[in-house]
Amino acid sequence: MSSQKGNVSRSRGQKHQNAVAFKNDKHGASVQVKKATSKVHDGLCQHCKGVLEWKVKYNKYKSLSQPKKCVKCSQKTVKDAYHIICKPCSLQLELCSKCGKKEDIVVPIKSCLDKREQEEEEEDKKEHKREKKSLDDLDSDDEDFAGCDDEEDDFDRDSGPK
């Protein structure tokens, strides 16, 4: 029996094995799931980042409805779920926003802002390409009427001297 004291090794494998992995958006992604998956977990240590990613992956992540109080500055500025320190305090003191320990921050808070700016620039470029493509399509429509100029010349010739 596996619950016996000191019985560390197991003689058989797992009894029930899942055939497919869990998908948090199996029946269509809800608004909460979309927000949770798109959220960038910045200002966290490696362990806390892994915990939050697990919560998102297995549909356990619950976002905050109202801001929480920061344990460092005592202001209601914590807007991320499961965090105890606001982003400005975390950045200033170089602490993990979730556990409050002084560990290596995996994704710094400032680089997240840079990524957002890069994404906005990429979206602008894509939009510009779409506009340019639609203008090219309009120009290609003019090619359909390229033969009309010749017909006008023929009309002018048939009408006689000017």
UniProtKB/TrEMBL annotation:
Pfam families xref list: DUF2039
Domain of life: Eukaryota
Record region (Disordered): 1-27, 115-162
Start-end of Acidic residues biased regions: 137-156
InterPro entries in alphabetical order: DUF2039 (IPR019351)
Compositionally biased intervals (Polar residues): 1-11
Protein's recorded name: Uncharacterized protein C9orf85 homolog
Source organism per UniProt: Austrofundulus limnaeus (Annual killifish)
